[in-house]
Design goal:
Blueprint: E1 12-13, E2 19-26, H1 32-43, E3 47-52, E4 56-62, H2 65-74, E5 82-85, E6 88-91, H3 94-105, E7 114-121, H4 131-141, E8 148-149, E9 156-162, E10 166-172, H5 199-209, E11 218-222, H6 228-235, E12 239-243, E13 258-261, E14 275-280, H7 286-294, E15 300-311, H8 317-329, E16 333-339, E17 347-354
Parallel strand pairs: 7-8, 7-9, 11-12, 11-14, 12-13, 14-15
Antiparallel strand pairs: 1-2, 2-4, 2-5, 3-4, 6-10, 9-10, 15-17, 16-17
The structure holds S-adenosylmethionine (SAM).
């Protein structure tokens, strides 16, 4: 058992009296090194241990938890998808789970509150059953709290990570976890007849960035085929102009609110301020994409919104992203958020507003 076992409180004092906070940090698979780099840039030296290669790591940051939350919310990271505090650490076995239940039962701030219990397992875990079963097991054990266990709008989140040889847990406000979903994993059910999985990216952007899609009227979708994003925008009641040399899905042909231009984005001509929403999911070299899209920005009215995926083809994604953002900012676009969504693969999503 290590010296941080059980009910250690929110922080530990290192010999030189620095306040340290510990977190389990999650990024999309393969992007943990960039999430670590983001933390280094914000907090200086970061001690970190990989829990799941390329994806999940345990980080020790200098600063009190409140300070960490403040810095992160003022500098929202791109690749760090989710963090959960580690205030309890124990060995990985059932007796440790019993101790965790006692520890949680004593967290009086949870009493009678709406609480989400998020449970994840490592690649190997001492807990053989599903995370859902562990959640139910723990919920039973902390009944004395009389908490209202819920998924929607909790006041508090209990995050538990059951790894091969260790059990980690912490309690936080949902807004301090960078994402209110367990591990930042938002899942949507695939609909019957759904045209592409790419649609999930725009559905996630809607939730993550709180984009009011139904408030727009006229959208252009660049790189639209086969039409997942277009179908999403049509469902939100928008008129859509879809640009792509490739064919759109047959279910999207001859729809009244949809104009299909089977052309390269470099060949189309639009009027000034024609659209109030521009989306682009072109899977193309980031610089060429930015060149093509900025060439069409005159058609986006001031106050209009743009949602653009940026493919990360290079070895230095942070530098590429900086360059692409500068290209858009030079064209009166203000970046609201840049984030690698759970449904983004080797790319990130930019959410921008034109001024
Ligand atoms: C990832 S797919 C888009 C998926 C789409 N968002 C959906 O939800 O179904 C990328 C598309 O970009 C298109 N594309 C690539 N370069 C383009 C260009 N220069 N102009 C227009 N479309 C382009 C490709 O033909 C391809 O259909």
């Amino acid at each position: 058992m290590n010296d941080l076992t059980q009910a250690t409180g929110e922080q530990t004092a290192a010999p030189e009296e620095k306040i340290l906070s510990r977190y389990i940090c999650t990024a999309n698979h393969g992007f943990a090194p960039y999430a670590q780099e983001e933390l280094r840039r914000l907090f200086g030296a970061v001690k970190s241990t990989l829990l799941l290669p390329g994806e999940i790591f345990l980080a020790t940051l200098e600063g009190e938890p409140e300070e960490v939350s403040r810095v992160l919310s003022a500098n929202l990271p791109i690749f760090l998808r989710h963090i959960q505090p580690v205030q309890f650490q124990d060995q990985g076995d059932l007796s440790a789970l019993e101790r965790l239940a006692v520890y949680l039962s004593r967290r009086s701030e949870l009493e009678g509150e709406k609480v989400s219990l998020h449970v994840r397992k490592g690649a190997t875990s001492f807990w053989q059953d599903s995370p859902g079963e562990l959640r139910e097991w723990l919920q039973e054990r902390v009944q004395s709290l009389e908490a209202d266990f819920t998924v929607q709008d909790p006041a508090w989140v209990i995050s538990v990570y059951a790894d091969g040889e260790a059990l980690y847990a912490g309690v936080s406000r949902p807004e301090d976890n960078l994402s209110s979903w367990n591990g930042g994993m938002i899942r949507f059910r695939k609909e019957d007849g759904q045209i592409s999985r790419a649609k999930f990216k725009l559905m996630e952007a809607e939730k993550e960035f709180a984009i009011p899609f139904s408030s727009f009227r006229n959208a252009v979708d660049i790189g639209a085929s086969p039409g997942g994003w277009t179908s999403f925008l049509l469902e939100r009641g928008l008129k859509v102009t879809a640009v792509d040399p490739a064919l759109m899905h047959e279910s999207l042909r001859n729809l009244p609110g949809l104009k299909i231009l089977r052309k390269n984005a470099g060949e189309v001509k639009f009027r000034d301020n024609e659209f109030d929403l521009l989306v682009c999911d072109m899977s193309w070299s980031p610089k060429l994409m930015a060149k093509l899209v900025t060439g069409l920005l005159h058609s986006l009215a001031p106050g209009g919104t743009a949602v653009v995926t940026v493919k990360l083809m290079h070895k230095k994604p942070l530098a590429v992203i900086k360059e692409i953002i500068a290209m858009f900012e030079g064209e009166r676009m203000q970046v609201q958020r840049a984030k690698q969504l759970f449904h983004n693969r080797d790319e990130i999503t930019l959410y921008m507003i034109k001024y």
